[in-house]
Amino acid sequence: MPATLTRTRVLIADDHPLIRLAVRRELEDAGFEVCGEAADSDGAVADALAAGPDLCLIDVQMPGGGVEAVRRIKGRLPETKVLMLTSSEDEVDLVEAMLAGASGFLGKESEPARLPHVLRAVLRGEVVVPRAFISVLVQRMGAASEPRAGAAVPKTR
To answer: Nearest 5°: phi and psi at 138?
Structure first.
């Protein structure tokens, strides 16, 4: 019996049709299977639940909120990887998306040929974050884990 190759299934969620088309072409040329496209948060969640993609590529600033879509998708499909596609340089977007379960960010200004490599990295379990945001992310995540005033601090022996 011949072995069958399964292609990685990707859902693209962005409110700009030209972005979705360009991303689809790049991914299909690299051997990925685009299993759905959505233009808003509700559509992304519905399509993800219906298709069960390996990875969702989600625009941070699409209608309904990309971060909200991540929360809902990861809540129902925890094994599905999520990569945020963005033109935002807002550190709040970065931190919120990572806290919601995203595996990183890719700027829309990135070289299109880089996209398949970044998706493969995320599928291997890597976190992809622009260098400019690494220190911000580390500081914010560290601050979130610091005890708050009045909070119980575990005793050490």
So the answer is: -65, -45
Burial of 33 (0-12, 13-18, 19+ CB in 10 A): middle
Nearest to 57 by CA among 20, 112, 16: 20
For the chain, give percent helix, strand, coil, nearest 5.
45, 15, 35
Return the pLDDT at 143: 67
The whole-number pLDDT of residue 153 equals 45
Q: In what order do the strands lie in the sheet with 33-38?
A: 33-38, 9-13, 55-59, 81-86, 105-107
The pTM score is 0.83
Residue ranges, the chain, pLDDT below 50: 1-4, 151-157
Are 78 and 51 in contact by the 8 Å Cβ rule? The answer is: no
H/E stretch holding 66 reads: helix 66-76
- Separation in Å, CA 24 to CA 104, 133, 141, 156: 19, 27, 33, 52
